[in-house]
Amino acid sequence: MTTTEQPAQEPRTEPSTLAGERESLEGWLDYHRATLALKCQGLDDEQLRQASAPPSELTLLGLVRHMADVERHWFRRILTGEDAAPLHWSDEDPDGDFHVTEDHTWDEAYATWQEEIGHARERAGGRSLDEVSAGRSRSGELFNLRWIYTHMIEEYARHNGHADLIRERVDGATGD
Q1: pLDDT tens, position by position, 76-98
Q2: Is residue 160 classed exposed, middle or buried when 0-12, 13-18 and 19+ CB atoms within 10 A define those classes?
Q3: What pLDDT, in 10s, does the model give residues 131-166?
Q4: Packed helices 145-171 and 21-40: angle between N→C axes, nearest 10 degrees
Q5: How far apart (Å, rounded) are the C-alpha atoms in residues 127 and 159?
Q6: Strand partners of residue 144
Q7: Verdict on whether the full-model pTM lies above 0.90
Q8: What is the DSSP letter of 15?
Q9: Rounded to whole angstroms, how far apart are CA atoms 72 and 119?
Q10: Signed CA dihedral, 114, 50, 171, 162: sign only
């Protein structure tokens, strides 16, 4: 089995302790994106599809697929109001992003995730943190970009905690 070969990624560094608001928000979001990639590094597809603690279906590959959909949802559907259909889930299978099979690979999941991160950066770039979203939540709420960044940091931080535990279960690796 071959391990995942990831393209060179930006270094995982914390934002400056003196950074302004936007630099801090974007820096922490990038830090957590890089953390999830780091948790997957060096594992093969079989290991990335390994459930953490059955009966849970949570896997590292599922987390990457999930975060691709989360990036797409918040930056494309909510922030800009695009009609961007979900990538990995549907009304019939709302947890489809987590339902990984032998057909799902790191190469595909990673490429899709990175593409959505690129779209997110493009859509958020140059906008004021106070800018209100074009799209709304299911309950009709609007969001400013500041809230979206904060939510995305929270989403990654929570799932990176899951990734820590999954990775330790898969091969014993621990650490940041």
Answers
A1: 999 999 999 999 999 999 999 99
A2: buried
A3: 999 999 999 999 999 999 999 999 999 999 999 999
A4: 20
A5: 27
A6: 132
A7: yes
A8: P
A9: 8
A10: positive
Architecture of domain 21-171: Up-down Bundle (1.20)
Q: In this structure, which long-range contacts are made by residues 9-17, counting pairs with CB atoms below 8 Å and at least 24 apart in sequence?
A: 9/34, 9/37, 10/34, 12/38
Two structure tokens written together for 165? 């535990």
Residue type, 41: Q
d(CA 5, CA 44): 9
Give the sign of the dihedral formed by CA 65, CA 117, CA 74, CA 157: positive
- Tokens (6 digits) for 147: 């809230």
Q: Nearest-CA neighbor of 135 among 72, 61, 87?
A: 72
**Residue 28 in tokens:** 């922490």
- Asked whether 152 and 26 are in contact (CB, 8 A), the reply is no
